[in-house]
Specification:
- This protein is mostly helical.
- It has 3 domains: 54 residues, Homeodomain-like (Arc Repressor Mutant, subunit A); 53 residues, Homeodomain-like (Arc Repressor Mutant, subunit A); 171 residues, no CATH class.
- 46% of the residues lie in helices and 6% in strands.
- The chain contains 14 helices and 5 strands.
- It is elongated.
- The C terminus is likely disordered.
- The structure holds a DNA duplex.
DNA sequence: AAAGTTGCCAACCGCACAACT
DNA sequence: CAGTTGTGCGGTTGGCAACTT
């Protein structure tokens, strides 16, 4: 049995609000406030509307200082950078833009801004192999497994693409030195920017530098036998995204924001959790970060501060998490070792 | 001119969570 | 402490207008 409905569905009006309803609601709230109870409000003023509907109408259209349309370039940039870093948490994004509502920003993003930013890249990447998650989304609903994971990954991919796009278009610096409220929501370890550095193994494991933008580094040893398959897959992923991999050495300027768990799968195997086979699973399980994510062994030495060359700063996520709330400590590095 | 398609956006829905009893 | 209620949020839908065929 579900919970009781918030109102009598049969006796409430739905659809667009009339001018009289607006005036009635506005006058009431301006004079008496909401009384702390939206559910009771419509009854008090004789409105045949659901309390939730009244709340939405007030918050999105009737309250003072609401702006509609006419988003500025600056607002575009704020929306983009926040979307890339925290995803579709519109209420948080809206909180950074006075006068804008979450609904407005959501609509603006979905109908205009996303297309504006992704339009060119979509065109160019169509000629490449589609990422499996994209393919899934674009070729109808192949929802045969783990739809949440797929959706998350698609969103992460979109954010990756946008981050790339944004770097070229807006030069918006990205940083995870955000208040905890802005941290990504899906994984306790958080979404994070990662920068893949295709350097030689020794550099990749211990000496990977974190640049001045304070980005989290996802270091991979490219030449390890166990990671050959993974790298090949990564190459495919990168080409789908329109990146060029250096043949060897050097730095792949691939900065992205993604769900760690989902991206681990998509980057290494292009598969969701439920579709990873035994052999692949074993391969994946060999990664300590994977063990950490799935809690298969104690977590130590895998989530580190940016000063991870200093062993004393290494520690399990719990301690790293505590450090992360300190604005003086920038970000954390995820190291993949012993691939 | 009619029919079909696309874009836009206001509003709704269901869920999660906090507050209250 | 469990059940209930209200609030807030993000995803989705429905309807209208503009555009295309």
């Amino acid at each position: 049995m579900g919970r009781a409905p918030c109102c009598d569905k049969a006796n409430v009006k739905k659809g667009p609000w009339s001018a009289e309803e607006d005036a009635n609601l506005k006058a009431c709230i301006e004079e008496h406030g909401t009384g702390g109870n939206w559910i009771a409000l419509p009854h008090k003023i004789g409105l045949k509307r659901c309390g939730k509907s009244c709340r939405l109408r007030w918050l999105n259209y009737l309250r003072p200082n609401i702006k509609h349309g006419g988003f500025t370039e600056e607002e575009d940039q704020i929306i983009c950078s926040l979307y890339i870093s925290i995803g579709s948490r519109w209420s948080i994004i809206a909180a950074q833009l006075p006068g804008r509502t979450d609904n407005d920003i959501k609509n603006y993003w979905n109908t205009k801004l996303k297309k504006k930013l992704l339009g060119k890249r979509k065109e160019s990447s169509r000629s490449h192999r589609l990422h499996p998650n994209q393919a899934l989304n674009e070729e109808g609903d192949g929802m045969n497994h783990d739809t949440h994971s797929q959706a998350l990954s698609a969103s992460a991919l979109e954010r990756m693409q946008l981050h790339m796009q944004l770097q070229g278009l807006c030069k918006v610096p990205f940083s995870f030195s955000n208040p905890p409220a802005l941290w990504p929501k899906y994984h306790p370890l958080g979404d994070r920017v990662f920068q893949t550095q295709l350097t030689d193994a020794s550099v990749a494991t211990h000496e990977t530098a974190i640049d001045s933008a304070q980005q989290v580094v996802f270091a991979v040893k490219p030449d390890s036998p166990k990671s050959i398959g993974a790298n090949m897959q990564r190459e495919l992923d990168c080409s789908a995204l329109g990146f060029q991999l250096p043949s060897s050495g050097g730095t792949l300027s691939m900065q992205a924001c993604a769900g760690v768990q989902a991206d681990l799968h998509s980057l290494l195997y292009c598969k969701s959790t439920s579709s990873v086979g035994d052999e692949e699973h074993q391969q994946l399980a060999d990664l300590d970060c994977y063990k950490e994510i799935y809690g298969e062994k104690e977590s130590s030495n895998w989530w580190t501060t940016t000063g991870f060359e200093d062993k004393s700063l290494m520690g399990p996520w719990d301690s790293a998490s505590a450090l992360h709330s300190d604005p003086m400590i920038p970000d954390y590095a995820l190291r993949y070792e012993d691939l």
